[in-house]
Design a protein that fits this description.
The chain contains 14 helices and 16 strands. It is α/β, with parallel strands linked by helices and 440 residues long. The protein has a 9-stranded parallel beta sheet with strand order 1-4-5-6-7-8-9-10-11, covered by helices on one side. A 3-stranded parallel beta sheet has the order 12-15-16. The longest helix is centred in the first third of the chain and has 15 residues.
């Protein structure tokens, strides 16, 4: 073995970097998307890492660190123990994972060695199929220490009827959480107060969260249940847009106290409150760089007239009604003259009035000209919005158009062509990039 090879083998960081190129999944920092495709390919890559771990003692630790760093589901770890999967007694009962004998000292040592390597758990859905006796035994074996002591990222699927197993994955080391709360009855709406209490109990256990995304389960939740968010003083990204929770003015003021917040997705509803509200929304809002907000034209008008968004660079708006759009744009311009790259999407509306966006928002650089018909999910291009946007001497650098428009000669009517951003026809925008939407 050459001296260079010996040095590489002796350097654990280099080996880890090499084996990471064989990793079945890379879950990038800040990424909250699902990765449930290509399971067979990932299984093959895991086998390659397992073989590498057997090559030599020098390879073993580094290869195992990478192999166990990201789990698709907890079953992969439980299989280290003497467990079997028992099918349900009938079609109405799901299968169960049970222990068939006592855990030996060797098995437990191996389990703990792998568990301490887990940094991310992609899915806890399968945890509900583990018999409660298994969780109780694991809790006893852990003697008060976390089941996954170095876990950083987790995606929780929680049933209100039996949420207990989710708490085995909550440890103070977790920094990124994606959560879905559902009723025992799939078609039922989770009870607001029960979901709210559960939500608060979970956040109390995770003081160091940097990313929080809730995808469902908080419908009709009273705003005071959201207050624990304000204790997360390391929070960088908060996505509550699809959670069902509504942010009123009091909650917006509370969110402004999270100094570390930079990315915010939320639904706004001022309800029957008539205002006027005292003071502006400063604090965290002053440092936001990305905002995705949904609400009625009236509520968004209130919000943008109060919010100080001086550093905002990316803005997405979803209107729950098509009225008052000019007022919204005026409010945006008042709130932040520093907007430089705004993405506009108009949802839940089949029609929007003619609007001269470049006049209302002269710094606008990025605009989507698609609408969504809420009744059938179709994406409808808005020609009325397109005409003023595509006129000469605007700052628009990117147009997002429906694919069906690009199959016609329509873009050429405005001096646009589906080319790269380097194309700059004299009769069109300064930089005429057109992006095809994948929806059709």
């Amino acid at each position: 073995m050459s001296m260079a090879v010996q040095r590489v083998v002796q350097c654990a960081d280099v080996l880890v970097h090499i084996f990471e190129q064989m990793s079945p999944i890379i879950w990038n920092d800040g990424d909250t998307e699902d990765y449930f495709d290509a399971r067979e390919e990932r299984a093959w890559e895991r086998k390659s890492l397992a073989r590498a771990a057997r090559v030599s003692h020098a390879f073993s630790e580094s290869a195992l660190d990478v192999l166990w760093s990201v789990l698709d589901q907890i079953d992969d770890l439980l299989l280290v123990l003497p467990v079997i999967v028992v099918p349900g007694a009938n079609e109405h009962e799901s299968e169960k994972t049970i222990l068939v004998q006592d855990i030996t000292l060797e098995q437990w040592s191996r389990f703990r060695a792998y568990a301490k390597r887990v940094r991310a758990l992609k899915d806890t859905y399968r945890a509900r199929h583990v018999d409660p006796s298994v969780w109780l035994l694991l809790e006893h074996q852990c003697e008060g220490t976390p089941l996954l002591p170095n876990l950083r990222r987790v995606q929780l699927d929680i049933r209100l009827s039996s949420p207990g197993e989710a708490f085995y994955f909550l440890t103070a080391s977790v920094t990124d959480l994606q959560m879905n709360i559902e009723s025992a009855d799939f078609n039922a709406t989770p009870t607001p107060d029960v979901a709210g209490v559960l939500y608060r109990l979970i956040l109390v256990k995770l003081p160091h969260l940097r990313t929080l995304k809730v995808t469902s389960g908080l419908n009709e939740l009273r705003p005071h249940y959201l207050e624990p968010i304000t204790t997360l003083q390391s929070l960088h990204r908060l996505d509550m847009l699809d959670s069902g929770a509504m942010f009123d003015h009091a909650m917006l003021e509370s969110v402004s106290s999270i100094a570390s917040l930079r990315i915010l997705w939320m639904d706004i509803s001022y309800g029957s409150a008539s205002g006027p509200f005292q003071g502006s929304l400063k604090g965290a809002f002053c440092d936001l760089i990305t905002l995705h907000v949904r609400g009625s034209a009236r509520d968004l008008d209130r919000f943008f007239s109060l919010a100080d968004l001086g550093k905002l660079s990316t803005l997405h708006m979803n209107f729950t009604d098509p009225s008052g759009v000019p007022e919204i744009c005026h409010a945006i311009h008042r709130a932040s003259s520093a907007l430089s790259c705004n993405g506009y999407r108009y949802l839940a509306s089949t029609y929007l009035p003619y609007l001269d966006l470049p006049t209302y928002c002269p710094r606008l650089a990025h605009v989507s000209l698609c609408q969504t018909n809420a009744s059938n999910g179709l994406v409808i291009p808005s020609l009325a919005l397109a005409r003023p946007v595509a006129r000469p001497r605007t700052r628009i650098s990117c147009l997002l158009l429906d694919f069906s428009l690009l199959s016609t000669t329509w873009p050429l009517q405005f001096g646009l062509a589906p080319k790269t951003a380097s194309s700059s026809p004299s009769s069109g925008p300064r930089s005429s990039s057109i992006t095809r939407h994948p929806w059709q």
